[in-house]
Amino acid sequence: MEKANVVARACAELRDKLRCALECEAVRRLIERDDRKQIEALVDHLDRTEPIYVTCEDFSELARMDEAFDIKIAKCSGNAELVDMLRNVNERMRYFRTINRRQLRLQPQSDDPEGLSAHWKIVRAIVAKDTETAVAATSSAAANRSSNS
Fold first, then answer.
1. What is the pTM of this model?
2. Residues 71-98, mean pLDDT to the nearest whole number
3. How do the domains of the chain map onto residue ranges?
4. The domain at 2-144 falls in which architecture?
C-alpha cells in the first residue's frame, strides 16, 4: 500500500508541474501575441467573476472558477493545443484542487499590500506586458493550488 501512495504522490507532483508549465506558457504566449482585444476580454472576465470568487464558499465552484480563469488565459493565447492539454490536466486534478481550496480558504486571501488577488496580479502583469512578473505570479498561484499542499 505504501508503494501505491508513493506512486500516486509522484504522479500528482508531475501533474502539478505540468499544469504550472502549461499555465505559464499560456501567459507568455498571450503577452507575445499582444492581442489587446483578447486582453480586454480577460480583464472583463475577471471584473465579472472575481467579486463572486472572493466571497464564494463552495469549494467545487472555486476550483471550477480557477480552471475557467486558466482556460480563459490559454484561449486568449490563441493556442488550441495548449487549451486542450490544460483541460486534460485539470480534469485529472479537479478532486485534489477542490480539497486544496478548503485548505486555502483557512489562510489569508492575499499577501499583497494592495490586497490584489492572485488572478488580478497575473492580469495586471499581462496588461503591462510584463512577462517576468506575469509568469512569476502564475507560478506562485499554481504552487498555492498544488494538489500536494
1. 0.81
2. 88
3. 2-144
4. Up-down Bundle (1.20)
